[in-house]
Design brief:
Blueprint (H helix, E strand, L loop, with lengths): L2 H19 L4 E3 L17 H9 L3 E4 L9 H9 L5 E3 L21 H12 L3 H15 L4
Parallel strand pairs: 1-2, 2-3
Helix pairs in contact: 2-3, 4-5
Length: 142
């Protein structure tokens, strides 16, 4: 079994276990597509992300969505509902443009939110409100 197929098998086993336990989980960094280690596989697609969403998962979106070569993650963001998106920093790695290549910081999350808003054709404020509510749902915060 190759490395990528091994990662895919591990992810499917994790998903199956979570479904059987009815556990709330977040899938982070789906579809980085840039060779970095991901929670999902590097071959993940918008269709796979939609399957995770249908199972009740959230998709974490970080600085890669601002990269010119972040096409796959941009497609994922466009394909899934805002109600299943979480914003993340990947700190200290993968800082968004214009800080790419530098140490990441939670200060930069606004760049991720702006790109999600642009891709979704909605306001920055809508992204902030929705992703805050998503985080509260995930962590069961009232």
């Amino acid at each position: 079994m190759g490395r990528k197929s091994g990662k895919r098998h591990k992810m499917k086993a994790l998903l199956y276990s979570a479904m059987m336990a009815a556990a709330p989980l977040a899938v982070a960094d789906i579809s980085l597509g840039n060779g970095e280690t991901t929670t999902a596989t590097d071959e993940s697609t918008a269709a796979e992300a939609q399957q995770y969403v249908q199972m009740g998962y959230f998709i974490g979106v970080g600085g890669v969505v601002t990269f010119k070569n972040g096409r796959k993650l941009k497609e994922v963001v466009e394909a899934i509902p805002l109600s299943n998106i979480l914003l993340e920093t990947d700190c200290p790695y993968l800082a968004p443009v214009p800080f790419r290549g530098k140490r990441n910081s939670s200060e930069y999350i606004s760049y991720v939110a702006e790109e999600v808003a642009r891709l979704k054709g909605i306001s920055y404020e809508e992204v902030l409100c929705a992703t805050e509510e998503n985080g509260k749902r995930l962590f069961k915060i009232k």
